[in-house]
Design a protein that fits this description.
Oligomer: single chain
Largest sheet: 8 strands, mixed
Mean pLDDT: 90
Radius of gyration: 29 Å
CATH class of the largest domain: Alpha Beta
CATH architecture of the largest domain: 3-Layer(bba) Sandwich
CATH superfamily of the largest domain: FAD/NAD(P)-binding domain
């Protein structure tokens, strides 16, 4: 695993085929090598740009690559010593090759500056979504595709690399023999259109050149080309465009003066493989993978030979520092992140007349629905700008072919078209790495949580791109990074993951596959957990997920059409805003005077360990069986406004809500409409010279009404609890009357997408429903009413009906009443195995364990200790008992806890969720959960076990280390340095 504190023998920048080959050869020589790449994949020329022609036997690395691909079924021999690679299998092989060679890889990292000490590079600064960090090595290799380190060190280029580029598209379902397709020539404004064979029958590689090496220009040209090709080439009439290259292959490359492997004129420990000369503007002269590999491999000997003459670096004050200007860019609105919410935020902002810049880390718009491979909607409310988007995607889709859901490549194109039409300036391959703020007087409707805290006004963002760092200034900013990166950099408050162990939602890495009838399908399964705020852990997570796709042998049936370039991240930070949406708000179908969106889904938590979730989540799923029950509410504008930060709006899953609420509010449709609202609000604020917090909400709502994002909707979800909720504080949102006593918010509510409320039932009727098919509604409503229902609950907990006694005791426990103890203890002692109806519900005795901890019932300690001794108890039951004992706080449990963690037979494996057919369940080592929960409990009971923390303090998984630090911080007397 890459370690920023390690000084490497060699740091190779650029994880393309050249950089990979150089790193592999150097690692094979016994050197400690780091490989740093800005993309999330190695060998981008093949894996992202679909350069697939390999010259056999041209180098050792080429021979290795050919042998590995042949064994895996991803290689096809052609005549005259050439063969073809399959891009998805090549990505898997390159990842395994880096791991086997011992190369330490850092993805998602862009070099932005370097420091020179005399004639030596002393360190290179890289920018990531985690911020900036320095990489130290004795020797540096610049294998970037734009000679970035060479230029940062003061070197010059004979050729800039600007010029034409070639786009490649994989087509499946080609009629007849795909190898027989003939070149077309120039067509539909594209140059030298031709076809190449691939590894697989029925598949062809379409290539075409355009005047600028720009993926946006290629996407905009693609519909016209596909339309013309389907008319001209009969074999393509029913073909499916399964994937379009993420980047273009440049037809000219940057070149330093002096020819092959010229020494850097200033830095003698900086090497650049060659020959990086100008390539003729003809596709036949495009470098093949073999040429890239050979250049990298041959440079390794020169680098290794130079290493002894380079002195070992030493710590000093001249490590590189960030350079943020020049250049400096200015806009009205800067949207950071072009994913699900960000793409629509930028389009909405530009349509409102604001000069809008959209900064995106990847190479496409649309996020998880396009680059993430999840090309279908799951719940959510239609309406607004997304309706126009979906209509245009549907109209364009026939050009690309049939897909399950919408076609992701068609959506990429439509988003590109809509952004271009609106005048959005899109900046790809660029990551937000920092924020510039200044102190301003508070404009919050109430003081921040800490009255001494300063309020910050966001003025600019620092962004790391292919040319290094740049500064983007704006009047208003939208954080659509998904993880709240910009808000955190600007100083906003946030929570991370769930409250117990900080674990975020599981992540996935989707892939495409072909159905038997020639349709594009999704393969999606949970690959594990990761910390999306940590670039090192993001790298680990992607590499880990790739391993789950590996097969010893692929064939036409089991092969992958593509591996999504974007990880399926579901949760990390939740930024604290002026209003924090809760699970109770969602279940109650709460309405807000400053509503700017609607949302509905269900408690879509992919986990199964509800003993580690909140008590409310445990109740909703384990006991009430409501995992799949639909619910939803309106989204207030205040959720988009981070506390303590001015000039910023949230337009991603990191908006202000609890971890429980996030499980419902994270669907594509919901985030698209929130993105539209944020874009409208940002543009309005920028035009008026206001902060987003000062923007008049009624005007935002009117604009959303005009687009159809607010207003009458079809009912999509009902409300479970029917008693009126306390009205949230308006918090200075500027709600104004629109006529008489009617406010705009009232008008919205009268035409809400939600069905009318059902009148509340008397408490006696709710009590009578306990233990019936109405238990879920009755129990939740009684708990929500609290003290009002208490007398009847106390009576029912002592009644004759066992079911009523149990469910009344559940409600009392949620109200933290000790009277719940007798019935819950009985359920635990008897190990009641009744399982409520509903997915993911649990035997009654397990929730009873959690609830006994909630009411801190010391009388339950002996029985809870028996759970720890039970060889039949599963991991969830053991952790539930550990956590309950910690909440109760009785030191009598210490011996049982100590004995538990020494047991050699503890269950420690979790099987993760598979969301679509074709995925294989992943098994996750979860021993850390039990050890650290026990360490936390023992510390609370006055018997700390630092050894349990130490077992996991250096775990390669960042979320495990995070929880270990949390437990260490709560352990008295422990050295936490």
């Amino acid at each position: 695993m890459f370690d920023p504190n390690t000084c490497y023998d060699v740091a190779v920048f650029g994880g393309g085929l050249c950089g990979f080959a150089a790193a592999r050869e150097l690692a094979r020589k016994g050197l400690c090598v780091a490989l740093i790449e800005r993309r999330p994949a190695l060998g981008w020329e093949t894996t992202w740009a679909f350069s697939t022609l390999l010259q056999e036997g041209s180098s050792d690395t080429s021979r290795w690559l050919q042998a590995k691909l042949t064994a895996a079924g991803g290689y096809r021999h052609l005549e005259r010593h050439y063969g073809l690679l399959d891009p998805p299998i090549a990505e898997l092989v390159l990842e395994r090759g880096a791991r086997e060679a011992g190369i330490e890889v850092l993805l998602y990292a862009q070099a932005v500056a370097l420091a020179l000490r005399g004639d030596l590079v002393a360190g290179v600064l890289v920018g990531t979504k985690s911020g900036e960090t320095a990489v130290g090595a004795r020797v540096y290799v610049d294998a970037t595709d734009n000679a970035l380190l060479w230029v940062l060190a003061g070197g010059e280029l004979e050729a800039s690399g600007e010029g034409p580029g070639e786009c490649r598209v994989l087509l499946n379902g080609v009629a007849g023999n795909a190898d027989d397709l003939k070149p077309v020539g120039d067509l539909a404004g594209c140059r030298i259109v031709q076809f190449w064979p691939t590894v697989w029958p029925g598949e062809a590689l379409l290539t075409f050149a355009i005047e600028r090496c720009d993926i946006r220009a290629a996407r905009l040209a693609l519909p016209g080309l596909l339309r013309a090709l389907r008319r001209r080439v009969p074999a393509l009439a029913g073909a499916l465009a399964t994937s379009v290259a993420c980047e273009l292959l440049p037809l000219c490359l940057p070149a330093p003066p002096g020819g092959r492997r010229a020494a850097h004129p200033i830095a003698r420990n900086l090497f650049r493989p060659g020959p990086w000369g100008l390539v003729e503007h003809q596709p036949s002269c495009i470098r093949t993978p073999s040429m890239y590999v050979l250049e990298g491999e041959e440079s390794a000997d020169e680098v290794a030979n130079a290493l002894p003459a380079v002195p070992a670096p030493y710590p000093g004050d001249d490590l590189p520092h960030s350079r943020v200007a020049p250049p400096t860019h200015q806009a009205d609105v800067v949207v950071c992140g072009g994913g699900t919410g960000g793409a629509l935020a930028a389009i909405a902002s530009a349509r409102q007349g604001a000069k809008t810049v959209l900064i995106e880390q990847g190479t496409c718009l649309g996020g998880i629905g396009t680059g993430g491979g999840i090309h279908s909607y799951y719940h959510g409310v239609t309406g607004g700008l997304q309706d126009e988007l979906d209509k245009r995607v549907t109209e364009l889709a026939p050009l690309f072919g049939r897909a399950d859901g919408f076609h992701p490549e068609a959506k990429k194109v439509v988003l590109e078209q809509m952004a271009a039409e609106a005048g959005v300036e899109v900046v790809y391959n660029t990551t937000i790495t920092g924020a510039q703020t200044e102190c301003v007087p508070s404009r919050l409707p109430a003081k921040p949580r800490d009255t001494a805290e300063l309020v910050r006004r966001l003025r600019a963002v620092v962004a790391a791109g292919p040319e290094g760092n740049a500064l983007y200034r704006a009047k208003a900013f939208v954080d659509a990074t998904g993880d709240g990166d910009l808000a955190a950099m600007a100083g906003a408050h946030f929570t991370f993951g769930r409250a117990t162990d900080g674990l975020p939602h599981a992540y996935s890495l989707a892939a495409g596959r072909l159905s038997d009838d020639g349709k594009l399908l999704i393969t999606n399964f949970d690959a594990g957990y990761c910390d999306p705020t940590d670039a090192v852990d993001m790298t680990r997570a992607r590499r880990h997920a790739l391993g789950h796709y590996w097969r010893d042998k692929f064939d036409a049936k089991t092969r992958l059409l593509y591996i999504a370039p974007i990880l399926g991240l579901r949760n990390s930070r939740q930024v604290a805003g002026d209003y924090c949406l809760t699970l109770a708000d969602e279940i109650a179908g709460r309405q807000f005077p400053d509503a700017i969106a609607y949302a509905y889904s269900h408690f879509d938590n992919h986990g199964f360990d509800y003993e580690n979730e909140s008590d409310e989540a445990m109740l909703w799923v384990w006991l009430l069986g409501n995992w799949g029950r639909r619910y939803g509410c309106e989204i207030p504008y205040r959720c988009l406004l981070p506390i303590g930060v001015e000039g910023l709006l949230m337009a991603c899953r990191a908006l202000s809500m609890t971890h429980d609420a996030h499980n419902q509010l994270r669907m594509q449709r919901d985030l698209q409409r929130i993105g539209e609202a944020a874009g409208v609000a940002a543009a309005l604020a920028a035009r008026r010279g206001l902060t987003p917090r000062e923007a008049p909400v009624p005007e935002i709502q009117k604009a959303l009404l005009a687009s159809g994002a607010l207003g009458p909707r079809e009912p999509q979800a009902g409300r479970l609890c029917h008693r009126p909720s306390p009205e949230p504080k308006e918090g200075g949102t500027g709600i104004l009357p629109v006529g008489g006593d009617l406010t705009l918010a009232d008008a919205l509510h009268e035409s809400s997408w939600m069905p009318p409320q059902v009148p509340a039932l008397p408490f006696a009727e709710r009590i009578a429903q306990l233990g019936t098919e109405k238990t879920s509604e009755a129990c939740w409503d009684l708990i929500r009413c609290g003290e009002e229902a208490l007398p009847l609950l106390l009576e029912a907990a002592k009644g004759e009906k066992p079911a009523s006694r149990f469910w009344a005791s559940v409600a009392l426990a949620m109200l933290k009443r000790p009277e719940a103890a007798p019935e819950l203890r009985a359920a635990l002692a008897e190990r009641r195995a009744d399982v409520p109806d509903g997915r993911k519900s649990a035997p009654l005795w397990k929730p009873a364990v959690v609830l006994l901890g909630r009411i801190a019932d010391r009388g339950a300690v002996p029985e809870l200790c028996k759970v720890l001794e039970d060889r039949q108890a599963d991991l969830d039951a053991l952790i539930a008992a550990v956590r309950a004992l910690a909440r109760i706080g009785d030191p009598a449990a210490v011996p049982a806890l100590d004995a538990l963690v020494e047991r050699p037979d503890l269950p420690a494996e979790r099987i993760l969720q598979v969301s679509t057919p074709g995925g294989r369940p992943v098994r996750e080592d979860a021993r850390w959960q039990l050890d650290l929960a026990a360490a936390e409990a023992l510390a609370r009971l006055g018997s700390p076990r630092p050894d349990l923390i130490a077992r996991h303090a250096d775990d390669e998984r960042a979320y495990v280390r995070r929880y270990a630090r949390q437990v260490a911080a709560a352990t008295p007397g422990l050295d936490r340095t």
